[in-house]
């Protein structure tokens, strides 16, 4: 499969990069982790104005999508800048509601597209947690063929990344939709969440590699930059190769999703394995190349280091995704 992003898609990514660079996302991350969601919600609104969340919402509900390729471009940039909040979950909620249809879709989809509504999501078989449920306007849960709105965020659990707050949603709440269509919608939402998380992981890994290359050019040992050492060069090259091999898998999966291919789910799983593992490898390279300074809370890099492994495991661990690939 041959594939290149269009000029418009590349420009979309560059515009998001410029916006997020000016937004000082490390400060937003620190506030989010401390429970101060105002800066994060303000940033969310600016991203919505740029059309990020409308990409997952059909035009009939005020969106632009579904546009998986553009969603991948956006999520890579959001991952590169470690934007806080349930990004993948909100995009997946758009896929879920679009297929569920009915009053619940009419109620929430326009809000997702405009950025007024931040949603979290928990699907049966995808773990017990809903990301950032305390700041979400609604938490969607699917059990069997029933879609419900959780009555509350539930209990906060420990997370490796303090800016990724995990909650066990409260049980209960009357079903807002039910039937066989909900099962199919949940499968599509699971693929959408896995796909978006893969893109976030790829972006996270790219930023970790960029920061590491910049650091080893400046840090000296024996009077020369440590980046000139062969062992360091090899490690950085291996990290780059992992990220670059993951990229075509991600965009290949985006094309299959856009075309509605029967093999799209397996393609998404393959992209998630490659991007998740590459992002985590980039974190290990970054930590080892920075030395003890990499552990410090004061260094912005620590927020990306803490994010890489949760993104690798969220919405499909490597073993689960490999099994999905083998099953076709």
Considering DSSP H and I runs of 4 or more, what fraction of the residues is helical?
Answer: 55-70%
Strand order of the largest sheet: 1-3-4-7
Query: Would you tell me the structural class of the helices and strands?
Result: alpha+beta
Spatial separation of the terminal alpha carbons: 18 Å
* Tally of separate helices: 11
Q: What is the averaged pLDDT score?
A: 94
- Please summarize the sheet with the most strands: 4 strands, mixed
- Strand residues, percent: 5-15%
Q: How would you explain this protein's 3D organization?
A:
It is a single chain. The chain starts with 6 loop residues before the first helix and ends with a helix. Helices cover 60% and strands 9% of the residues. It has 328 residues and is an alpha+beta fold. Helix 5 packs antiparallel against helix 6, helix 7 runs parallel beside helix 9 and helix 8 runs antiparallel to helix 9. It has a 4-stranded mixed β-sheet with strand order 1-3-4-7, covered by helices on one side. Strands 2-6-5 form a 3-stranded antiparallel β-sheet, with no helix packed on it. The mean pLDDT is 94. The chain is built from 11 helices and 9 strands.
Kindly summarize this structure in a few lines.
By secondary structure, the protein is α+β, with helices and mostly antiparallel strands.
Write the layout of secondary structure elements.
Layout: H1 7-22, H2 25-33, H3 38-49, H4 68-80, H5 87-100, H6 102-114, E1 119-123, E2 130-131, E3 138-143, E4 146-149, E5 155-157, E6 166-168, E7 175-178, H7 180-218, E8 220-221, E9 224-225, H8 230-259, H9 264-290, H10 301-313, H11 318-327
Parallel strand pairs: 1-3
Antiparallel strand pairs: 2-6, 3-4, 4-7, 5-6, 8-9
Helix pairs in contact: 1-4, 2-3, 4-7, 4-8, 5-6, 5-7, 7-8, 7-9, 7-10, 8-9, 9-10, 9-11
